[in-house]
Structures are given as C-alpha cells and as structure tokens.
Amino acid sequence: MFPGFTRAIVFTVSLAMGAAMISLNAYATEETVQAEESLASDQGLVFEQALGDIGNLSRVIEKLEARIGKASGITQTILESRLTKARISILEQGLGFAKIVGEQESSGTEIDKHHNRAIKILGSQLNLAKVLAADIRKRILLPEAELPAAQQAVAYSRVFEHLNTLNHVYELFIENLKLSRQFGLDVTDQERLLEENLVERASTGSTLLEMTMAEVTALRAGVSAVPGDAEIKAKLNVATIHVSSLASGLAVILTMMDSVGMDTTAYQQQLLGATGQITTDVFEVGVFTNLLIGWGQTLWSVLIEGGPGLFFKIILFFIIVFAFRKLADLLQRLTETGLAKSEVELSLLLRRMVVSIVRNTTIVIGVLIALSQVGISLGPLLAGLGVVGFVVGFALQDTLSNFAAGLLILVYRPFDVDDFIEAGGVSGMVSNMSLVNTTILTFDNQTIVVPNNKIWGDVIRNVTAQDIRRIDMTFGIGYSDDIPKTEKLLQEIVSSHEAVLDEPEIMIRLHELADSSVNFIVRPWVNKEDYWETYWSITRAVKMRFDEEGISIPFPQRDVHLHQT
C-alpha cells in the first residue's frame, strides 16, 4: 500500500549486512573494502529513495488540500478522509526514516547528512501532528438524541472512527517526542502541548462516557416502564455498545498518559465504574482511596435518604419469605398425608417428587412475592428467566433427555426405592432417584449413579418386584447311588425348612443324566427377603445329610495311564 515502507524494509536489511561487513574491517582485503564502499553507495541510494517517498506524500497532501478547498458535500468528506490517511502515512514514514537513522548512528555509522534531514523531518512532523489532531477533533460531532437507533449507530460509528484515529495520532506524537529527545532536540513546548491534548482528549472521552452511561440508565427505566417498545430497546442496545467502545478508547488514552507520567487517578475511577474491570491502576493509593471515599459517600447518602423505607422493605422481605417457608412445611405435611391415604397407588419415588414440587413451588412463589414488595419488577425478571431457561434447555439437551426418562420411570414404575435391579449395565439396590439420574448401591457397598435415559433405554430387570421368589438349585449324585432315597432326603430337607412356603408346591425332580452324575433340580418358593439365607442353608443341609447317608456327590476325575515302550 505504501512503497516507502517496502523500501524501508530493504534498507534495514541492507544496513544489517553493512554492519556485519564493517565489523570485519581489520581483516578485510582490498576487494572487501571496495565491496563495503559499494554497499555504502547502495545505502545512500535507499536513503534518497525513502526521502523521495516522503516528498511524494507531501505533494499528494498539497494536492488534496487544494482539491478540498474547491469541493463540497460527500466529495469533500471523501477527500478529507484521504487527506487524513495521507498525513498519518507521512508521519509513519518520517518516524521510520528517523528511527533507522538513529539505529545506524547507535551502531557507529557516520551519516551526518541524513542526521540533519531526520532532525528536520521530526520537527516538521510535530507541527503536522498538531494540525492533524486539531482537524480530527473538529470533525467529531455527536448525533442528536432524537434520531432513530439505526441512524444513531451509524453516526456514532463515525465518531468512534475519528476518536480511534485521534488516538493513533497521539501515539505517533509520543513516538516522535521520544526520537526527538534521542537526537538531542529540545521538545519541552511540544511535551506540554501533548499533555494538554491528552488531557483534553481524556476529558472529552470521560464526558461522553458519563453522558452515555446516564443515557443507558434512562433507557433501562424506559424499557421497564414500556417493555413492548422496540425502539427503546434498540436504543438501549446501541447505548450499551457505545459505553463499551468509549471505555476502550478512554483506556487507550489513559495508557498513553501513564507512559508520559501523567496522573490518571480520576479517570481510572470512572473507567472502573463503567466497565467493572479491576486493573493494576485501581490498587494505587490515590485511586483506591478515592474509590472507597466515593462508595462510602454514596452508601451514606442512600442510608440517610431512604434508610427507614429500605429497612422496612428488608424486614418485610424476610417476613414474607419466613411465612411462605412455614406454609411450605404445612403443605408438605398435608401432601404426604394425602398421598399416604390416597387409593391411587404411587411409587415412593413419585410421592417424593410430588412432595418436593409442592414445597419448592411454594417457596419460589413466596420469594417472588417478597421481591415484588421491595420494589423489584417481576415482569423483566420472569422474562429473563424464560430466556435463560430456553438457553439452558438448548445447551443441556442430554440432561433434558434424562429428565424425560425420569418422568417415564416415575409414571410406569418399573422399580422403586429398595428394589434390587439390573439395568444400565449395573446391578444393585436402588437407594435414591431424581428426575435426572438413579443412585444404585451394590452389595459390596459401592454407590453407582446411572443416567435415567441409559436405564430407560435398556432392559430393566427388577429382581425384588414380586413378594415371593423361587430358588433354583441343582444337586448331583453318583450313578451307583439310590435315586428314591435321594428324592426322599431332598424332600425332607426342603420341606422342613421354616422359610420354605407350602404354596406354590415344591418341585424336586430327576433332571438329567450328566457325564459323571445324576442331577436333581430342587425348586422351593420363599419370601423375597429370605431368598439368599434359604439358598445357603439348604445347600449346607444337603451336603451334610448326603455325607451322613453315604450318598456321593460326584466331581470330575481323570485317570492317567502310563505306557512304557
């Protein structure tokens, strides 16, 4: 975009190469000296080209200034924008030239001719920066408050563009002053002028920020009073964006002011109030002290003016919340009693959920009523909760799937608390259930939390759903043992057990002729809570009676034959 910038890069590389050559001067041959002289000639050519680019930009600026004097309307606006960009470009080109000259002098290169030119350029640029800043400030015009939100946004975008350009000019001004001091120039007057300009810019930004924040407060009140007015909401959005942009611009100016040693305490306080962002400047003694004093005065004013009314509202808030808390306890007891006496059979999980919903809903209603009594409008609050609910629901789709599965489990009741189930790849006792997940306690005392959609989407095996269960056992005897005697012994053992039920009938049958045993199946019925105790005790009794009666219990055996050759 700028040919001088490219040549400056070429020039920098060339100078670096030249410096490396000069460092070897003591060992150079005659050919090396000639090469250095040729390189110095090339460097001089690059300097002249850079100066030529600056001269070309100067002529472009002169032509634009002449055309602006004859133009009007949109043409004049376009030409003024081009002129500003050209002036900024020549500032950047001049600073780049002076910076390279200073770097070469620091490395020991003698370039007196270019040294004087750099000093001349820096001096002229200080005046150019002053004129450019004044011209930009004249073009900063605030739009009228009566304009529609869309037109205000467009107008303010131009204002922010001018403010950002002005900030950039000040940055170039500061860099110019640093280089001027490096060249030994007296820039005391220019430093004073810069400080005045920065103070004016900070004051303007501070005023605009304060006005916009007041506008945001007024528009928020308008939205609360007329929630359906789309234009007020649009203006509020625009003003909120303006606060952020103005605060960012002010932060840039304060950084520049800090770099030149200026006091920014008052502006830092305002910036904190506008953005809420705590920076390291806040912890300076002056800033922190003034913030505490300001907050203390504000709090004291609020307490003096509205203290009694505010105290009464706070007391009323807690009274209402306490009353609804007691009402929630009462409704919880009534709901529990009603569900217990109800003829509709509900699961324990569903009863718990109904009781929880009644209690929590009562408390939420009480809090909302209490908030309305202390002056907080519930309309925007409920609307905000609705929007938040929509966003959260969209973000938590998997959780809502678990919620739906939990409702289906509560309605269809495939299991209840204290049931032993096998579902979702785990087995154990159901200890708790919510609308999102189910907590299962295994027999070795591990707690497993399973999402409800995983349980509902899989096979659910409720082991303890029925009141009675059948125990399936198999006992084997040898082929040489007495089958009728064995049947009689098994019948006596099972029938005499106190936990075995008479109905359904006990089943004892010769089941199969296996490879090494004759197998009997034994299937008694017991109450579900007696299942394992009965299983273990019958197994023990069978083993002991078989041993007493001489009935063998076969086990796999293997004969090994050795053949000697």
Describe the structure.
With 565 residues, the chain is α+β, with helices and mostly antiparallel strands. It folds into 5 domains: 1-139; 144-283, no CATH class; 295-395, Orthogonal Bundle (Helix Hairpins), CATH 1.10.287; 415-462, Roll (SH3 type barrels), CATH 2.30.30; 468-549, Alpha-Beta Plaits (2-Layer Sandwich), CATH 3.30.70.100. The protein has 15 helices and 10 strands. The strands form 3 sheets. It has a 5-stranded antiparallel sheet. A 3-stranded antiparallel sheet has the order 7-9-8, covered by helices on one side. Helix 3 packs parallel to helix 5 (149-182). The protein is elongated and about 130 Å long. The N and C termini lie far apart (102 Å). 20% of the residues are buried. Residues 1-40 and 276-288 have low confidence and may be disordered.
Structural Rg: 45 Å
Mean pLDDT: 75
What is the straight-line distance between the termini? Answer: 102 Å
**Relative strand content:** 5-15%
Helix content: 55-70%
Q: Give the strand order of the largest sheet, numbering strands 1, 2, ... along the chain.
A: 4-3-2-1-5
SSE ordering: HHHHHHHHHHHHEEEEHEEEHEEEH
Number of strands: 10
Largest sheet: 5 strands, antiparallel
Low-confidence stretches: 1-40, 276-288
Envelope shape:
elongated
Quickly count the domains. Answer: 5
> Which secondary-structure class do the elements indicate?
alpha+beta
| Individual helix count | 15
Structural features:
elongated, 8% strand, 69% helix, 565 residues, Helix Hairpins, disordered N terminus, 10 strands, alpha+beta, 5-stranded antiparallel beta sheet, 3-stranded antiparallel beta sheet
